[in-house]
Amino acid sequence: MAKKHWFYGKNILLTGVSSGIGFYMAKMFASKYSCNVFGVGRNIEKLENAKKVIDEEIEKFSKTKKGKLSKRGSFEYLSKDISSFESWQDIKKILGERDFSVDILINNAGIMLPFDRFENQTPEDVKKVFETNFFAHIYSYKVFLEDLKRVKGAIINISSSSALCPVAGEAVYGASKSADKSFTEAISIEHKKQLYIAYVCPGFTSTDLFRNEEGMSKLVKSVCMPAEKMAKKIIRRLARKKRRIVLGIDAHFMSGLNRLAPRTASSTISGVLKVSKDPMFDKVYPENKQKRKVK
Fold it and tell me: If you average pLDDT over every residue of the chain, what do you get?
C-alpha cells in the first residue's frame, strides 16, 4: 500500500487535467494514493482520453500487492472554462449535485503566449492570460474557501519559475504568475492555522504550454523536465507540506540569481536567451534572425 500521506484518500479538485503536469498528478493521486479526483479541463476529447488512461491505471494498481491493501481511488471530469467567476459557481453546483465535497483544490491550468515583445501583444492577449493564470485562482478561492475551511483542507496554486525572475519575451505570463505567487503567499499567512496553502514554481516542463511555439528550442530542451517527473516531484513536496516549492534546474537558477543580484538577474537571463540564438526567441531578439539570414 502507498504510504498514507495526509492527502491519502482525499477528494481533490484539479484543473488542467487533460494533459501535462495536471494529467500525471491526477493519475498518481487517483491510483497510487487512492484519491477521488475531479478534473476540470476544456477539451472534451482530451478529457475522455485522460479518463480512459487514468481508469486503466487505477485498475492496474488495484491488482498489485500494494493496491489490494488500499482503498480504490476514482477519476471524474468536467469540461468547463475556468476563466470566469460564474464558471466556478457552476462547478461548485455540479459537484454538489454529485455529492463531491472538496478537500484539496489544485489550480494547475495555465496558458502562455509565444515568446514575443510585449509591444506586439494585444490587450485581449493580456486579458486571456490573466483570466486563466491568476483570476481563476482568485475565483476558485472565493467559491470554495468556506468548504475548505470546514475540513481544514488545502489550496495549491501552480505558478512558474517566471514568477521568480522576470523573463524578456514573457512579460504577460510572468506578470500573471508573479501576481499569483504574491496572492498565494498572502492568503497562506491569512489562513495559516486553518488551511495548508502552497504555491509551486516549476521550471521548463514538457507540456502543452509550448503548443503555440513552432518548435521548442535547444536551450529549453536541455533543461526541460518531463511532465510526469515534474508531477512526481510536486507530489513529494506536497507530502511534506512545503509551502514554497521550486523545481527544475532553471527555476533554482532563476530564483538564486534574483536573490543574489536582483538588479541584474533579469538582464542576465535575457542575455542567456539572446546568445543561445535559438529561433524560439527570434521575436524577442529579431537581430538574431537577421544575422542568420545574412549568413
Answer: 91
The C-alpha atoms of residue 243 and residue 200 are separated, in whole angstroms, by 8
Asked if residue 83 lies in contact with residue 135, where contact means CB atoms within 8 angstroms, the answer is yes
Domain boundaries along the sequence of the chain: 11-294
Count CB atoms within 10 A of the CB of residue 237: 18
pLDDT band of residue 204 (cuts 50, 70, 90) is: confident
162, three cell numbers: 517566471
| Dihedral angle computed from the Cα positions of residues 200, 206, 35 and 70, in that order, rounded to the nearest 10 degrees | -120
Which of 254, 208, 201 minimizes the C-alpha distance to 227? 208
Residue 219, pLDDT score: 64
Place of cell 508531477: 231
Element (H, E) at 198: strand 196-202
Q: d(Cα 136, Cα 110) in Å, to the nearest integer?
A: 10
Angle, CA 238 vertex, CA 235 and CA 239 arms, to 5°: 90
The rounded radius of gyration (Å) of the Cα atoms in the chain is 20
| 11 within 8 A of 36, measured Cβ to Cβ | yes
Write the pLDDT tens digit of every residue in 241-251. Answer: 999 999 999 99
Tell me, rounded to whole angstroms, the distance of Cα 198 from its chain centroid. Answer: 12
User: What 3-state class would DSSP assign to 8?
Assistant: coil
pLDDT tens, residue by residue, 233-273: 999 999 999 999 999 999 999 999 999 998 999 999 888 88
Q: What share of the chain is helix, strand, coil (3-state, %, to 5)?
A: 55, 15, 30
Contact 20, 208 (CB under 8 A): yes
Beta bridge partners of 165: none
Task: Residues 11-294: name the CATH superfamily.
Answer: NAD(P)-binding Rossmann-like Domain (3.40.50.720)
Query: Does position 211 have pLDDT exceeding 60, yes or no?
Result: no
Residue-level pLDDT at 217: 58
Integer CA distances (angstroms), 157 to 16, 48, 254, in order: 12, 24, 19
